[in-house]
Fold this protein.
Amino acid sequence: MLYGIHWDLSNSWTFAASIIPILLIGMKITVLATVFGFLIALVLGLVFALMRSAPMRIVSWPTRFVIEFVRDTPLLIQLYFLYYVLPDVGLTLPALETGIFALGLQYSAYTSEVYRAGLDAVPQGQREAARALNLGTMRTFRDVIIPQAIPRIVPALANYLVSIIKDTPILSAITVLEMLGVSQIIGARTYRYMVPLTMVGILFLILTVIAATAVRYLENRLPRAGIPLK
Amino acid sequence: MQWIDLLPPLLRGAEVTAWITIASTIGGAILSFAAGIGSGARFAGWRWLARTYVQVFRGTSLLVQLFWIYFALPVLLGISLSPTVAGVLGLSLNIGAYGAEVVRGSLASVESGQLEAATALNFKPVQTLWRVVMPQALVEMMPPFGNLVIQNLKDSALVSLISLSDLAFQADTLRNQTLDTVPILTLTLLMYFAMALVLMLVMRAIERYTVRLSGREVSR
Amino acid sequence: MKPIVTFEKVTKRFDDDTVVLDDFDFEIQPGERVVLMGPSGSGKSTVLRILMTLEDIQEGVVYIEDEPLWHEKRNGSLAPASEKHLHKMRGNVGMVFQHFNLFPNMTVLRNIIEAPIHVLGLSRAEAVKRAEELLDQVGMSAKRDAYPNSLSGGQKQRIAIARAMAMRPKLLMFDEPTSALDPEMVGDVLEVIKDLASEHDLTMLIVTHEMGFARDVANRVCFFCDGRILEQGEPEKIFTAPTEQRTQQFLRMVLKE
């Protein structure tokens, strides 16, 4: 029994069917961690990207190092670090919040690259044309550069949403009960791992296929030439 | 505990991580080519097998795959798998699925004129693949392969969760014993970072070699 | 004499249902040098690509000598060709492409010897000897060990011609061999083709817009329009006294360029 729901061990099929409600409770956490982790990655990645392209080297160089360091070290260790070290400095967060932040941090290293590459991909001639029209820096950025960068940036960012889904089970290492964590408990209590783990695998496949389909839909809907902003 | 005392156990773990990463990268590379080439095979059965493999392993989570191989697969097969075997197998299968997409895409990116010339010279499909297409496709594969190798190193930390005593496992064990959280985890991160830098250098050297192989950069 | 190539009521449709060749009949006699001319999109290149097995056909039969190219005789009737049959038939035909399509990963020499060794089964020494003779003929001996990317377009095309010749095809086809070249390189390449035509007893099928060259090299010029041959004959006749209005229009347009 878990979350007050009993399982039926008569055979594999009844077992599988009986644990679906339990796994769906875990899936809520999976989705929650994905969505909020992604939102943090979107915001933090933008901050990193801006800091990285700052004109002062004292800002841009350390930022580059931080991005590189975060990107090239394992999420699991970063997760441990945040979970066990933050309380030492007086910041105690629940496991789920810590996990969401770790996901957001790791993926902000990737998203910052996406923002940078997307902005760099707008042809230099566009900036020059804007200058020739005597548009100010802010105006150029808001009305010329960003609208053209968006069709390049959004699909690449959205692909990371799919990746984050697949990284959420790592949160079970710090006791977050997302889908995999829940299935581990079921396995430990019933001594049957085959069914719950296979079910989790299938549920992940469903989640990622849905997310990937949504990403492709979004990609096809985006106008190629740019988004007209009001 | 002094920082210096933490080093020996962590280095022992780092050695395991290095071997696991190397073994699963090689295994993953083999799977990448098998499935990447297979997804373009003329026999529909191979195509189906390759595409299903890629879809399943890219569509699910590595940690779920590792747990499934370690806990569920032995039940299915009636044998027990050591953490090392399960870990290397899981990492190889996972990174191989991502690599297969890279191989497939790179093979497809070779100009159609090259295939037509090979047909005009009456090469058989296998000869066209290995003599004409592959040498030119390899250079396209290398940058994404470089990213995948780093990805694989980072992913290897997850084998600690099926009790394989790699660097992440040693770090977690030490942390439990000593509670010197900050130095242990800092050293661990630095060690992973150092290994990633070494891998980047190696991959860059391989990339330079494939550039020469493709004839893109002309050596006279 | 038996024709070396026969198209018998051939229809070629692309996937989007555009018809390129419709009920097309065509013959080439051994030793003939045929130039195909005509507006782009008229199906000239498709004829070559069908013979090189790069495009299949929907109806009709193509024969190379006596044997159907895209079909196999099975139990007295014609069945679609297997890869094995196509492999056998391709041995008769060679092709030079508009964009050369040299293999960038191989030196000039290896580009030429690779197929003779691995397809024809020649020894390396024999293949190299053959390649060196051909390199000499096309005037590229000095670039034997260079990689294609270090060569000019004209040089690449001369290598590509040597590479096709090394397979000793009965029929050698040229698909607009000079239209991707800078103007100053065109002459060299045409010269090489003319030399080969006079030295070897090759059957040639050439798609080109170069009228002077066609006049020198061809025994027959076919004017192609909308997937069929509108008018054909000796170059002198076609170029000086075309009977069809479309041919006259086209020639005027080409001469103006």
Chain A has one domain: 11-221. Chain A touches chain B at residues 69, 72-78, 80-81, 84-85, 88, 165-170, 172-173, 180, 184, 187, 193-194, 197-198, 200-201, 204-205, 208-209 (CB under 8 Å). Chain A has a mean pLDDT of 89.
